[in-house]
């Protein structure tokens, strides 16, 4: 017995049990089954050979006799066939415009279910489960073929939420049978196809060989996006954020985002744009290629609805933009739409090779339903070219479909033929309605092709000769759709020709105008009004930090919240001790430790009406159990966030333990910060070097977004760093990598040694009237160092201290100055104090970039005759030395460090201790 026969027999048993149950109590079974069995009893009594006679299927007294096993088996087979079409009909669907099959047997023939052509005209009550009535097998098969084996292949039977599955089935089986776009809808599709096709052909003929990553072969993307945006606006969406790579981006910019054709054409003509807003002379705005840029606009739908559109800028790293878009949308939902996800919609446009091959797609998909990262559902639109750069799909993925990633979150997939724009429209509408109804992700896999190579100068026939010989002869979708409409008598054939002619002339006029015009103006992605009030920071802003102190009265108010628990809340004993120690430190010594100062910074911002959000794998307690921002009741595991209970009406801190992801989470938080100018958004790595997994986000967004795209961002990254003998992967946050990325005052890199400085640097992020990313090499063991405390007055007065001098050394005696940063300071301090070395000064550089050279030189001027050394725990080829040497110039100072190494640190505690002792000894030699 094969698996399909087993399914059929299982259904027979199930139906028999239900039928017995129905005969005993009809109300005990579902209404649909009641209708089925009523119809079945009626057919037994009055159907062919029935008529209530002893010779038929009825009985002499006119009562239906028990159903015979043979007929129940047939009904079960038909029911199994319906179920199988719902599960595997997509394997038969005609979704590929090039006609290739999937190489997977669908097993949907009559014989697979012990049925034959002799049964085609038999009436089956199983028709109730498809057509709502008893029907012949012929009618049932015709409906199944039309719904499930047409130009759309539906995958949804794996959805485990029954209301969602029922909704999908009803929409698919009812709407698909009667779907017929209105005349206005057909004309709009024709118009958008004309714009898409003509725009690509125009660029191809006018700028032959220039890279544009055309949409040719997938032009139905434009009417699809147009449908999604317009239909979502009718469903209540006010804002749409789109993320996509470069294929088709120029077409989307002009035909969806309303960017002017002049601006696009000028990029091909070669004019260098002026910058819309003046940047400081010391910031180099390098810009980016035309198919990476973002844009924003206001769109008015055919029904008169207004919807704000944003297209996120994106680098060539495919799919990297995905978490950024999701974070942006979440931030807008939280801050603008009061948590109403129905008002803001993320759309991610994927390529088939990328959605299958890029790991970030999995990370973002896994984030979709998590409380910290949900955005109320994303519409994923796959432009399925059936090929990667030059890689065939059979070499690019193990899955049948590139969209099989959807199954991990039970997201339905609509596979649709890109040569059928009406089918694409149907899938797009249903995707919007599903997303708005259930706030869940949904995938549209538009099967199409790529008319040219990876870019327009490539020759794709080198690697896919047979495919491209077919593509060469294949008509474009505009021609095919126009022919279809004309054959149906729906649209005048001259309409499409007139559209094409008028649009070509329009583009030519734009080209002629651009050639005569002055250089265009660069317009970065527009955000909200809050960002317009900010300026770009420059060199002068980093000479000295602004005042960020907070009054003692407010600090006392915050401190009270940090040392108070609600009545009946029973924390662990360790938490009780932590609160007691926190009180004691302030009461007896007038001091606060690192965790207290950090939480007080957040509390002060909340009282000022600012947003504070923190995520990371252990952030609620802190990886090193220092923060304890979220407390757990030891008896019922309820939680309490003290900083959210300072006073009535304050803002709330959102602090979430993240999934085990760096790439996706950092991208999400960058997007969140990008959407809110007044949010302190923090990502804390479990260990600093785990940021390696997010290096693409760091390179492509964090360090360079201002230079490439004119976008500011105030994201904070906390990267635990410090040598305590924990091995190569738990010691070094790779500060050298961040310092290599520094230029044009693009971001701040710091390594702090006092609680007051963590307090002030966090507040400085939102005190500045500009925004810069902040990377902190944050402490580990130093969190509990007895000297790592600050007087409460240091939080009241002044601001962040970029450089901290040495109050102990005697300037007249000093022969050696040790410049350092971070935790090594306390090791040096211990040696200095123990040996009474007033002849060695220790100067802390708390901010590495922008390097406060004037402040450093002012400190060094106190020790005119001293020799200067840079001291670091890291190997000589790592850490800060290369950066410091470049900034100071060769010959001005020497280095004391571990020797050059391929690995960041030793894995043996004994070796570490010996190395550390030798390093400190050399510093004081």
UniProtKB/TrEMBL annotation:
<dbReference type="InterPro" id="IPR042179">
    <property type="entry name" value="KGD_C_sf"/>
</dbReference>
<dbReference type="Pfam" id="PF16078">
    <property type="entry name" value="2-oxogl_dehyd_N"/>
</dbReference>
<keyword id="KW-0786">Thiamine pyrophosphate</keyword>
<dbReference type="InterPro" id="IPR031717">
    <property type="entry name" value="ODO-1/KGD_C"/>
</dbReference>
<dbReference type="GO" id="GO:0030976">
    <property type="term" value="F:thiamine pyrophosphate binding"/>
</dbReference>
<feature type="domain" description="Transketolase-like pyrimidine-binding">
    <location>
        <begin position="592"/>
        <end position="785"/>
    </location>
</feature>
<comment type="function">
    <text>E1 component of the 2-oxoglutarate dehydrogenase (OGDH) complex which catalyzes the decarboxylation of 2-oxoglutarate, the first step in the conversion of 2-oxoglutarate to succinyl-CoA and CO(2).</text>
</comment>
<dbReference type="Pfam" id="PF16870">
    <property type="entry name" value="OxoGdeHyase_C"/>
</dbReference>
<dbReference type="InterPro" id="IPR005475">
    <property type="entry name" value="Transketolase-like_Pyr-bd"/>
</dbReference>
<dbReference type="Pfam" id="PF02779">
    <property type="entry name" value="Transket_pyr"/>
</dbReference>
<dbReference type="GO" id="GO:0045252">
    <property type="term" value="C:oxoglutarate dehydrogenase complex"/>
</dbReference>
<comment type="similarity">
    <text>Belongs to the alpha-ketoglutarate dehydrogenase family.</text>
</comment>
<dbReference type="GO" id="GO:0006099">
    <property type="term" value="P:tricarboxylic acid cycle"/>
</dbReference>
<dbReference type="InterPro" id="IPR032106">
    <property type="entry name" value="2-oxogl_dehyd_N"/>
</dbReference>
<dbReference type="InterPro" id="IPR029061">
    <property type="entry name" value="THDP-binding"/>
</dbReference>
<dbReference type="GO" id="GO:0005829">
    <property type="term" value="C:cytosol"/>
</dbReference>
<dbReference type="InterPro" id="IPR001017">
    <property type="entry name" value="DH_E1"/>
</dbReference>
<dbReference type="InterPro" id="IPR011603">
    <property type="entry name" value="2oxoglutarate_DH_E1"/>
</dbReference>
<keyword id="KW-0560">Oxidoreductase</keyword>
<dbReference type="GO" id="GO:0004591">
    <property type="term" value="F:oxoglutarate dehydrogenase (succinyl-transferring) activity"/>
</dbReference>
<dbReference type="Pfam" id="PF00676">
    <property type="entry name" value="E1_dh"/>
</dbReference>
<protein>
    <recommendedName>
        <fullName>oxoglutarate dehydrogenase (succinyl-transferring)</fullName>
        <ecNumber>1.2.4.2</ecNumber>
    </recommendedName>
</protein>
């Amino acid at each position: 017995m094969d698996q399909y026969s087993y399914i059929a027999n299982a259904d027979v048993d199930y139906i028999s049990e239900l039928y017995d149950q129905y005969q005993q109590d009809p109300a005990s079974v579902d209404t649909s089954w009641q209708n089925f069995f009523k119809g079945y009893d009626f057919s037994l009594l009055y159907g062919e050979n029935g008529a209530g006679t002893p010779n038929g299927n009825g009985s002499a007294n006119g009562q239906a006799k028990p159903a015979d096993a043979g007929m129940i088996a047939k009904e079960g087979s038909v029911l199994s066939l319906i179920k199988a079409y719902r599960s595997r009909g997509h394997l038969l669907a005609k979704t590929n415009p090039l006609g290739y099959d999937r190489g997977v047997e669908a097993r949907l023939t009559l014989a697979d279910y012990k049925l034959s052509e002799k049964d085609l005209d038999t009436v089956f009550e199983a028709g109730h489960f498809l057509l709502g009535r008893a029907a012949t097998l012929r009618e049932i098969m015709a409906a199944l073929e039309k719904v499930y084996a047409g130009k759309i292949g539906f995958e949804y039977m794996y959805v485990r939420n029954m209301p969602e599955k029922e909704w999908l089935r009803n929409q698919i089986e009812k709407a698909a049978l009667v779907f017929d776009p209105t005349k206005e809808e057909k004309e709009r599709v024709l118009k958008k196809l004309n714009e898409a096709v003509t725009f690509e052909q125009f660029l191809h003929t006018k700028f032959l060989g220039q890279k544009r990553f055309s949409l040719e072969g997938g032009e139905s993307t434009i009417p699809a996006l147009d449908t999604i945006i317009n239909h979502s606006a009718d469903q209540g969406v006010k804002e749409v954020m789109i993320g996509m790579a470069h294929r088709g981006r120029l077409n989307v910019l002009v035909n969806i985002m309303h960017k002017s054709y002049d601006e696009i054409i000028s990029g091909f003509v070669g004019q260098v744009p002026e910058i819309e807003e003046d940047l400081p002379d010391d910031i180099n705005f390098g810009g980016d290629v035309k198919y990476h840029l973002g844009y924003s606009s206001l769109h008015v739908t055919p029904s008169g609805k207004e919807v704000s559109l944003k297209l996120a800028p994106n680098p060539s790293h495919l799919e990297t933009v995905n978490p950024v878009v999701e974070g942006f949308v979440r931030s807008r939902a939280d801050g603008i739409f009061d948590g109403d996800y129905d008002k803001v919609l993320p759309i991610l446009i994927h390529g088939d090779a990328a959605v299958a091959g890029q790991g970030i797609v999995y990370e973002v998909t896994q984030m979709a339903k998590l409380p910290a990262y949900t955005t109320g559902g994303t519409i994923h639109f796959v432009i399925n070219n059936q090929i990667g750069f030059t890689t065939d799909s059979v070499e690019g993925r193990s899955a049948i479909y590139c969209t099989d990633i959807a199954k991990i979150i039970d997201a339905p997939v609509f596979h649709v033929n890109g040569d059928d724009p009406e089918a694409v429209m149907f899938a797009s509408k249903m995707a919007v309605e599903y997303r708005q109804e259930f706030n869940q992700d949904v995938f549209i896999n538009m099967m199409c092709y790529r008319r040219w190579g990876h870019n327009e100068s490539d020759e794709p026939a080198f690697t896919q000769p047979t495919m491209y010989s077919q593509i060469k002869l294949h008509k474009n979708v505009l021609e095919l759709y126009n022919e279809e409409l004309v054959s149906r008598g729906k649209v005048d054939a001259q309409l499409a020709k007139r559209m094409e002619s008028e649009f070509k002339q329009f583009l030519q006029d734009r080209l002629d105008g651009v050639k005569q015009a002055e250089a265009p103006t660069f317009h970065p992605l527009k955000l909200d009004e809050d960002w317009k009030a900010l300026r770009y920071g420059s060199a002068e802003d980093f000479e000295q930090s602004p005042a960020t102190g907070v009054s003692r009265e407010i600090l006392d108010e915050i401190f009270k919240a940090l040392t108070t628990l609600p009545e009946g809340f029973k924390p662990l004993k360790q938490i009780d001790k932590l609160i007691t120690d926190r009180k004691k430190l302030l009461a007896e010594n007038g001091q606060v430790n690192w965790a207290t100062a950090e939480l007080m910074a957040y509390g002060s911002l909340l009282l000022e009406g600012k947003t504070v959000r923190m995520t990371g794998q252990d952030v609620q307690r802190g990886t090193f159990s220092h923060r304890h921002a979220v407390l757990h009741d030891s008896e019922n595991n309820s939680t309490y966030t003290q900083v959210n209970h300072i006073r009535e009406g304050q803002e709330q801190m959102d602090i979430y333990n993240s999934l085990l992801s760096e790439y996706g989470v950092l991208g999400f938080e960058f997007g969140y910060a990008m959407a809110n100018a007044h949010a302190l958004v923090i990502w804390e790595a479990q260990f600093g070097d785990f940021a390696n997994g997010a290096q693409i986000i760091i390179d492509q967004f964090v360090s360079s977004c201002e230079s490439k795209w004119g976008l500011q961002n105030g994201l904070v990254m906390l990267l635990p760093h410090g040598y305590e003998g924990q091995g190569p992967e738990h010691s070094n946050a790779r500060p050298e990598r961040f310092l290599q990325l520094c230029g044009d005052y693009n971001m701040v890199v710091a390594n702090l040694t006092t609680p007051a400085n963590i307090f002030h640097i966090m507040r400085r992020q939102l005190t500045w009237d500009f925004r810069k990313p902040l990377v902190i090499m944050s402490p580990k063991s130093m969190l509990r160092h007895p000297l790592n405390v600050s007087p409460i007055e240091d939080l009241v007065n002044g601001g962040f201290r970029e450089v901290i001098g040495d109050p102990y050394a005697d300037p007249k005696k000093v022969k050696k100055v040790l410049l350092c940063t971070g935790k090594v300071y306390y090791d040096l301090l211990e040696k200095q104090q123990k040996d009474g070395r007033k002849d060695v000064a220790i100067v802390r550089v708390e901010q590495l970039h922008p390097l406060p050279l004037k402040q450093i030189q002012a400190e060094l001027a106190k020790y005119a005759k001293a020799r200067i050394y840079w001291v670091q725990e890291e190997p000589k080829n790592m850490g800060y030395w290369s950066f410091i040497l470049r900034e100071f110039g060769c010959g001005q100072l020497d280095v004391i460090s571990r020797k050059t190494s391929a690995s960041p640190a030793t894995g043996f505690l004994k070796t570490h201790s010996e190395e550390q002792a030798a390093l400190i000894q050399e510093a004081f030699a």
